[in-house]
Structure formats: structure tokens, C-alpha cells
UniProtKB/TrEMBL annotation:
PANTHER family: DULLARD PROTEIN PHOSPHATASE (PTHR12210). This is Mitochondrial import inner membrane translocase subunit TIM50. It is found in: Mitochondrion inner membrane. SUPFAM superfamilies: HAD-like (SSF56784). Its main location: mitochondrion. It comes from Trichechus manatus latirostris. CDD domains: HAD_FCP1-like (cd07521). InterPro entries: FCP1_dom, HAD-like_sf, HAD_sf, TIM50.
């Protein structure tokens, strides 16, 4: 009788220990996933071969126009949560700007691997940043993305971007991009595609 009680107690202890161990492993895996999610990915940036560099030097560089918001970054300001960013995700950087005499903090999330993308693509194209945001915000974000590499020299903001309702918008876009024959512009808005 004592032996069966001892075996029953041992089985209960082993079952409890197994459940406790499973729970511990679950928490550990969850923590590791969280750590891995925010680790920086490092790439080896291979320089262009001499032949490729020579060929690129012989042709006029094409221009790649990139939309800042929702293409290169996601951002939200104080008190506004974006459904595209998981709650609790830390921003890559925080910008503090003054708009209409009111300080506003923007929480900026870079697209995954955007730094690597800009570094590599800047070898092939002249990069231009295009945004419908205010210059004070767009300039600060572009400066952070550029990171003193001088790859985002040309920037266009709300002040230089025509609104679709303005009567001269097609003329303004044509003037803005007088080099459209060398220009490639991935756009999020079909209306802007029609205007170009």
C-alpha cells in the first residue's frame, strides 16, 4: 500500500515537473523570439566590380524617387497608434519637431532592411525622397535615414508637391521632375501615377 502511494506521489511529481518544465521552455522560447526579432541584421556590402563601375560611369545615372511615408518608414505621433505597427514595438528613432508652435513627437519605425536597401541602391541610382509631409518632419526623417552618407541629397516635401485638386498640378509635377525620362518612381497612390 505504501509502495503504491509512493509511486502515485512520484508520478504526480513527475507530471507536475514535466508541466512546469514545459511552461519554462515556453517562456524561454517566447523571450528568445522577442530578442531575435529586434536584433540588427548585418549584411556584407559588396562593392561593385570594376567592370560594373566602369559601365555605370559611362551612362547617365537613372533617378529613383522613393516615397518616404509608408514606403521607407512607418510613423505615428503622440497618442496615435497605427494599425500597421504591433503595439509595444519600440520605434527605431523618435523625432521631436515643433509644428504650429506645438511640440510633437513622432515615433518612426524603419522598414526592415531599409538601410541596406538604400546603401546598395544608391550605387546604381541617384536617390530622391518624395513626401507629402511637411518639410520640418520630412527633412528630419530623411536626415536620420541618410545617416551622413549623402545618398538622399534631393528631397521634395508638401510645399513642393502639388495637391491633386490644384488646377496646375500636372504642370507642377512636370516641372518638378523635368528629368522624367531618367526617372523611376514607385508610387503608393494611383492618382500621383496619373499625374506623372
Amino acid at each position: 500500500m505504501m509502495r503504491t502511494q509512493c509511486l502515485l506521489g512520484l508520478r504526480t511529481f513527475v507530471a507536475f515537473a514535466a508541466k512546469l518544465w514545459s511552461f519554462f521552455i515556453y517562456l524561454l522560447r517566447r523571450q528568445i523570439r522577442t530578442v531575435i526579432q529586434y536584433q540588427t541584421v548585418r549584411y556584407d556590402i559588396l562593392p561593385l566590380s570594376p567592370v560594373s563601375r566602369n559601365r555605370l560611369g559611362q551612362v547617365k545615372r537613372k533617378i529613383l524617387v522613393l516615397d518616404l511615408d509608408e514606403t521607407l518608414i512607418h510613423s505615428h505621433h503622440d497618442g496615435v497608434l497605427r494599425p500597421t505597427v504591433r503595439p509595444g514595438t519600440p520605434p527605431d528613432f523618435i523625432l521631436k519637431v515643433v509644428i504650429d508652435k506645438h511640440p510633437v513627437r513622432f515615433f518612426v519605425h524603419k522598414r526592415p532592411h531599409v538601410d541596406f536597401f538604400l546603401e546598395v541602391v544608391s550605387q546604381w541610382y541617384e536617390l530622391v525622397v518624395f513626401t507629402a509631409s511637411m518639410e520640418i518632419y520630412g527633412s528630419a526623417v530623411a536626415d536620420k535615414l541618410d545617416n551622413s552618407r549623402s545618398i538622399l541629397k534631393r528631397r521634395y516635401y508638401r510645399q513642393t508637391t502639388p495637391s491633386p485638386s490644384s488646377p496646375g498640378s500636372v504642370t507642377q509635377v512636370t516641372q518638378l521632375f523635368s528629368i522624367c525620362s531618367r526617372c523611376w518612381m514607385p508610387l503608393g497612390s494611383p492618382l500621383m501615377f496619373v499625374l506623372c
